[in-house]
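Hey team,

Filing this mostly as a record. A colleague (T.K.) asked me to run one chain through the structure pipeline before their review meeting, and I want the input and output archived in the tracker in case anyone asks later how it was produced. No errors, nothing strange. Just documentation.

Input sequence:
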Amino acid sequence: MTGGDGFVGQHLVEHLLDHGYEVAATMLGKTPSPGTLSPAARAAAEWTRLDVRDADALASVVHAVRPRRVFHLAGFSSGAEAGVRSREALAVNGAGTLGLVEAVARAPADVQAVVVAGSADAYGGGGGPLGERTQLRPSSVYGATKAAQDVLARGAGAALGVRVVVARLFPLVGPGQRPVFVLPSFCRRALAIRRGTAEPRLAVGNLDVARDFTDVRDGVRALAGIADLDGTPHMAYNVCSGIATKIRHLLEWVLERAEIEPEIVRDPALVRRGEPESVVGDPARLRAATGWRAARDLRACVHDTMDWIASSGAA
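Output structure:
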């Protein structure tokens, strides 16, 4: 697994270990980033430092580990960060993914599946429900890098005889997510207000924007299920609930958990230009293939995220 110490990666490591798998995971730093991994899970996984832009290092890791299944999670996951560091984002998300598929093609082991963590941002426009047959028309730098990753992964897999499957992840939320994303940002600021270290005032963007949010713990179940599929390779599967939830509701649930009632002020600087009012996916293909459904309640997920931030010192 690449990116094993990231937000999604840590939850997937825990899930796989709980289900009896041996896990080898890569990280960008010298040690796994702090997050949701239990000490036991951190110790049970085999960790290797890796930058996926280094094709030779990628090939070396794949050759040494000889994996049966590969989960490719390393990459830029923030649209804001990708917009600022666009060339780096393309190198990581695009070329890094191509290098992994090439490394797997040359590996001595029989790799049953490579599951690439794609993104719904590759679709671009809003509306919905967006199905896997919807044309990829990215409308942001981040979306363009994820569309490139999607096409490269499946195209190279077909050309090189590697069974590649792309999981197009709609927004995942939950404990462990970085504060650059909307839910943990709300949580951190609400906790600061509750502690009295910030004024009881919250500046927000467009709260009426709606997105198809899924609890990350449901998301990693979907990734594991996709890796077990014996069906047609080079497919894409939406990982989503099929329900659009307004940002306003996330904020309401955060404030409910924090037990505060701050002044809410709309800040034009926080409103993204041209963003679609609603983006929702169609999970029918994934449900038909695996039986997967988003099972966790989103409001409970928001509360779990608040509790994790408060207890871990991440605030």
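Quick notes for T.K.: The mean pLDDT is 95. Residues 182-210+244-280+297-312 form a domain with the UDP-galactose 4-epimerase; domain 1 fold (CATH 3.90.25.10).
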